[in-house]
Amino acid sequence: MLDFGNESSRSILIRVTDPDAIDDALLRALGDELIRLSRRRMTNYPDARLDNSAFKILWLLVETGPMTLKEIGEQLQLEQSTINRQVNSAIDRGLAERALTPGQTARTVRATAAGEDDYRHDAGLRAAAMREALGELGPDHAATVIAGLGSLNDAFDRAQARIER
To answer: InterPro entries from the entry (predicted)?
Structure first.
């Protein structure tokens, strides 16, 4: 893993604006950090009411609204069989329900009141951990990190679009 010491992320970005300057060590360092970051999504919080799969499904349903199974699968980038199993589990637990939406042929899935309550409870636990981590960075550094992640995601989207053409 690369150690950038006390260098600001801005100086790192300036150094690697030339694609030829992106060496394998830098790619490995990015991969390491992305894996560490993705593990945060799988953290089990004390007093959580939901497992991670139910939380992700309810996050979509509460924050976005009712969705079809296909839409949930696309958003979470999971196989349809996995989504079917996870959504059926959430329905069996009373966290979600199927509904007919006027104008749509496919049935949608929406959060129940109990599912929304459990989601909001667990989202609060996760938000507290994020708030503490961002507070440790301070507001200016936190804003820079968030902006950098947004820029990285935008760059990944553009690169993926070019590859898919």
So the answer is: HTH_MarR-typ, WH-like_DNA-bd_sf, WH_DNA-bd_sf
